[in-house]
Amino acid sequence: MNSNNPNSQSDAQATWKRLFTGDLMIYSIILNLGILLFAVDTFVITTIMPTVIVDIGGTQLYAWPVMIFMVGAIVGAAATGPVRANFGRRNGYVFAGVLFLIGNLGAAYAPNIEMLIAWRLLQGLGGGLIISQSYGLIGDFYPPELRTRILSIVSTTWGVATVFGPAFGGIFAEFGSWRGAFWAIVPLAIIFCGLVWRHVAHSPVDKSGGMVVNFPITRLLLFALGILCVGLTSQTDNNVYRVSLIVAAIAMVAYAMIRDAKSSNRMFPKNTLILNTTVGSSYWFLLMFTFTFIVAILYATLYLQILHHQTPIAAAYISAVLSFTWTIGALLTASWKGPAVKLAVLGGGVLIVLGAIGLTLFAVKGPLVLIILSLSSMGFGIGTSNNHVIALTIECAEKGEEGLVASSVQTMRTMGLAFGSAMAGLLANIAGLSEGTGPETVARAVDLLNRWDIGLAALTLLSLLVFYYNYNRDKRLG
């Protein structure tokens, strides 16, 4: 536990009230506001893009404002450690907010699609830094007994953004004022920066023999190019090109992480992705459940409309059942302790597998109620296991790395989304979806995706078993 933590006194009483009283109240507000900014900005763009194209053109670059934001977010999240070392905790957090704010202002004024893409990259960099440092606050300031509860509040914030983000953008799109969607976020970003500056304690800059720690330019470029390769898979229907891009992306990201492990100014904590360690196995879980989640959900609204004749809005909300139950699972199990934590973690993994099996059996032929139950099983399983795994991982972090371990969580999730989306697109393309969205083609693609997803869900459960074994070994808990 960070010695500067104002709440590190011996107080084992874990209540929801403690999150919103005393010194923790302002941290709870700040970190959830930061996550809300990132989440809403992520969902808004998909809603307003048709209006954007009508206004400033650029149909051939339609996917790029979404894709480049994710590239920036991953690079920004990965750069959190060096940014905090160079600027300190408070200044690094404000720096992230300012980047995000400038990116929003630039996007609001963008005269063409190329400039919008450039400003979206800056938004993504700032957003990645914001959300990663928001998770970092959990490791820095929240005592172990409260971490699953604050992570459950964070899950709720994500759930709210999932529901209201598209509607928020839709209001501005309805009136043909897509720029207003970016303008509306600006006041929240200013409030966020002000709250951080006033209330987040400053930590000293790590000078380590120089003015600042050397910034990891090469590693960040490798990450950026790797994730960009993943994004480019959506721009081609050639499976050979797609496979080549995915392989190149994996190679560049892996090389960046190898270099990072040997560096004195690491972007990731020790033992990242080393399977026989608590931190490493937990990160594998984050990657695997994100793969499972995105493969299950990416084409859900499509097959619900084509195969089950749901309206677009009904399909969207049925798909969102996974997010709703994720939040419910996180909230219901947030106060579990002792043996109940093992049930939440491993039982959650079993529910994820059952959800994947259910989708394989029912996604194509129905009935609709069993599709909903399968999505609910997967979402509830993620919700019950995810936050406990993160909290236990922070608990096992080496002294001084609690914030870095927590802040790396979102990097792993976002990488999982990027690679999982590319894999899902490749599988759907192999099944013939690029040739059209007729019922037979959609059914074939969905069946292939869900069969693969059973394997991914099984690997998710396996990673949880390995994680729990590593945790018990390290902490000597039953």
> Which CATH-level-2 architecture of the largest domain?
Up-down Bundle
What is the CATH fold-level name of the largest domain?
Answer: Growth Hormone, Chain: A
Overall pLDDT confidence: 83
How many separate domains make up the residues? 2
CATH class of the largest domain: Mainly Alpha
What's the count of strands? Answer: 0
SSE arrangement, N to C: HHHHHHHHHHHHHHHHHH
In CATH terms, the superfamily of the largest domain is MFS general substrate transporter like domains
Question: How far apart lie the N and C ends?
Answer: 22 Å
Shape by Cα distribution: globular
Beta-strand percentage?
under 5%
The portion of residues assigned to helices is over 70%
What is the radius of gyration?
A: 21 Å
Structural class: mainly alpha
Number of helices: 18
Explain this structure.
With 478 residues, this protein is mainly α. The chain folds into two domains: 202 residues, MFS general substrate transporter like domains (Growth Hormone, Chain: A), CATH 1.20.1250; 209 residues, MFS general substrate transporter like domains (Growth Hormone, Chain: A, Up-down Bundle), CATH 1.20.1250. 78% of the residues lie in helices and 0% in strands. Helix 2 packs antiparallel against helix 8 and helix 15 packs antiparallel against helix 16. The longest helix has 37 residues. The radius of gyration is 21 Å and the shape is globular. The protein starts with 15 loop residues before the first helix and ends with a helix. The N terminus is likely disordered.
